[in-house]
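ARCHIVE CARD
Drawer: 12
Card no.: 0347
Subject: one protein chain, sequence and derived structure
Cross-reference: see card 0346
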Amino acid sequence: MPSPGAAGRPLHGAGGPGRPLRGLRAAWRLVRAVLHVLHGMAVMTRFPMLDAAARHERIRWWSAGLLRAVGLQLQVSGVQPRPGATLLVANHISWLDIAAIHAAVPHARFVSKADVLQWPLLGWLIRNAGTLFIERERKRDAVRVVHAMAAALQAGDTVAVFPEGTTGPGDAPLPFHANLLQAAVATGTPVQAVVLRFADAASPFSAAVQFLGDTTLLQSIWRVAGARGLCAHVHLLPPVGSEHADRRALAEHLRELIARQLAPAA
């Protein structure tokens, strides 16, 4: 993309050729994404007939395919979760986060805001992937979700949470809420930090992916689909113990681990 001070090269303003090209790119990717989502809904109807391994493989395939459809490459690194129960704790940037983590750890069950149930098509898919929903407007609902998480962890599931409670700009994590970590502390489940970062051709922290403020889902999808050179980086840090831990201290420790990984790329 031309810089403002680049001499001898025309800048493409709102009416220049760059904008129509981005629009065509975004429209083509959106068509691919909608077709992929519809295919995923068809696959989901067969889930009751599949065993756990087959369901997880389809979740991995669908999640990676959604990223490709909207123009993202995927890079996964670090330590894969061990067999058995694990609580994954990730920084939160975008609606793309769930797909990025599911492409790397397809057996994870997410805890998500109930608002996503209103998302067209995606809400239905997220619900049927075993997601646990929390109504953040109701303070007592966190207690119910912690109990549900603890039951899932005791059953050997991998559960994933975004303890920031909202999306951030991506270059540093927001403060972590410790409430949901109580499920890991109560069950003695290892906790594993997941570092998410979305880069593009211009920046290690893509502004196109940020899902902030009054941005709607459709606005965000359009910006992502029109961006150039997007890459989702998923880095899994080694797990840490939680037995007898103070949940607030554990939350701050996990936040520092993630912040440390993001800092060199800033």
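Annotation on reverse: The first strand starts at residue 72 and ends at 78. The beta strands are 72-78, 86-90, 108-113, 132-134, 158-161, 191-199, 230-236.
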